[in-house]
Amino acid sequence: MNQIADNIFLLTSVVQQLNTVVIIDKDYLVVIDPGFFPGEIAEIRKFLQPWETPSRTRLLALTHSHFDHIAGVPYFPEYAVLTSDAWDRGNERHAIRRLEQFDTEFYVDRPWEPGHLTPLTPQYAVRHGQSLGPFLFLQTPGHTHDSLSIVYEHVIGVGDYLSSLEFPFINASLKDYRNSLALIAGTVRQHSLTTLLSQHGPPAYGTEIPTRAALARNYIEQMCEIVETAHHSGWSWEKTLSQAPDVLFQNRPIPLGLIPAHERNLQTIWAEYAQEHTLSTRHPESGGSPGD
Ligand SMILES: [Zn+2]
């Protein structure tokens, strides 16, 4: 476990550099996204043991319902699960399938039969702006509908936003995603936050926080430009998709392994643009669906 601030520790998984964050507060012991591989989870549980005193409320906070973020939940049965009250059951079902697919492909041994992970039961379903002890919860949808950010002292945990490893993954909605980026940036300024924890890769400190936000916005702007040009010029989806390799993130081309996620983003932005413009301006030549 790496200590990254007073009372805050990080364990980074070998897969996707997925972080588990542990916050050891006076009255609370909080685990944010409880790890992925059984060996790593065992290490986290061992680390937690001395701090699991009767006076501390034990919480398992989930930043969102993707499979890598929920895989560790059953290993912490005595922790109360905390999620956004917008928890997306459909996405969770999909995540359970995705986990089954991963575990059965790579022979990951779990203490349950493949596919028999039960949907979780949140004891705390938090609203936007709700506080609990020293924690403030913000709903930050866009990556998923149920994405949750957590503020503690001078630190904000933002789930899968603003990672140094990946461009924005816009799985739910571009509009929400942009609003959430603005909300996170505003919260950092307003509360003079110094540390930002993304759930994949290293934290951002100080001035690196606005730099990451600018890189995320720059990626989104490039994608929107393609989609706007496509709709105004009446491009087919295939022609639009052929522009995807021109988009850079951190001034570099998209890495091979992330191209499917990049193309999904373009599809999401394409569909959202078409929907908005059909409703408001009835753009006749912007037809066509973005493929399968
Ligand atoms: Zn995610």
Which regions are unreliable across 5 or more consecutive residues at pLDDT < 50?
Answer: 281-292
Our measurement of the CA-to-CA distance between the termini, rounded to an integer number of angstroms, reads: 42 Å
Estimate nothing, just give the exact number of structural domains: 2
Which structural class fits the helix and strand makeup?
alpha/beta
Beta strand count? 15
Can you tell me the CATH superfamily of the largest domain? Ribonuclease Z/Hydroxyacylglutathione hydrolase-like
CATH first level of the largest domain:
Alpha Beta
Oligomer: single chain
InterPro entries: Metallo-B-lactamas, NDM-1-like, RibonucZ/Hydroxyglut_hydro
Protein name: Metallo-beta-lactamase domain-containing protein
Pfam families: Lactamase_B
What this model shows, in words?
With 292 residues, this protein is of the alpha/beta class. It folds into 2 domains: 205 residues, Ribonuclease Z/Hydroxyacylglutathione hydrolase-like (Metallo-beta-lactamase, Chain A), CATH 3.60.15; 63 residues. The protein is built from 7 helices and 15 strands. It has a 7-stranded mixed sheet, covered by helices on one side. It has a 6-stranded mixed sheet with strand order 8-9-10-11-12-13, with helices on one face. Helix 4 runs antiparallel to helix 5 and helix 5 packs across helix 7. The protein is globular and about 65 Å long. The C terminus is likely disordered. The chain binds zinc ion. The site of zinc ion has 4 residues, from loops. InterPro entries: Metallo-B-lactamas, NDM-1-like, RibonucZ/Hydroxyglut_hydro. It holds the Pfam family Lactamase_B. This is Metallo-beta-lactamase domain-containing protein. It comes from Sulfobacillus benefaciens.
